[in-house]
Amino acid sequence: MSGLPPRWRRTPVDRRLKALGVVFGVIAALVVLQAPIVAALPEMSRIPVKAGLLEFQKVRSETVSMRGVNTLFVEGEVVNRAAGHIELPAIEITLKSSDGTPVRSWLVELTTDSLAAGRSIGFRSALVSPPPDAAQVTLNLAERPGLVGSR
Fold it and tell me: N or C: which end of the chain has fewer CB within 10 A?
């Protein structure tokens, strides 16, 4: 038996409650810090967006040097997780410095305006001579210019 007074001894229930609290804390941290984690781990292939209706998958970025000029390639897929047909917005690609400050962004138009349930469409974009201080690539869904309020 332990030399601790009875009120200081931990029971199996106390240990389970503490473990459960740690698990919930980690889950909460992952939800709150999702964007920084995704930016820090570009190899993650699934980035949920638009309240679960659309999802980015197989996202990757790569900088290639051709004839002494750097070119950044960003590619992936957009998947419709909705139960029905959905209109597709543009994709905004943003380059950020290591402290998270945006240094360049642009819109990518998909080759179709809508997508049936369960279907996916690929995208690819290239940027010649990306800013030298760009350290992170982020993706967001964005309104198409000139179509404000239509999506």
Answer: N
Query: What DSSP character marks residue 19?
Result: H
pTM higher than 0.70, yes or no?
no
CA distance linking residue 125 with residue 139, whole number of Å: 12
Domains (range + CATH), the chain: 44-142 (2.70.50.60)
Name the residue with tokens 């990306």.
Answer: 130
Rounded to an integer, the average pLDDT of 103-116 is 94
The fraction of the chain above a pLDDT of 70, given in percent, is 60
User: What is the rounded distance in angstroms from the CA atom of residue 95 to the CA atom of residue 98?
Assistant: 10
Buried b (16+ CB within 10 A) or exposed e, 40-75: eeeeeeebebbeeebbbeebebeeeeeeeeeebebe
Q: How far apart are CA 41 and CA 141, in angstroms?
A: 20
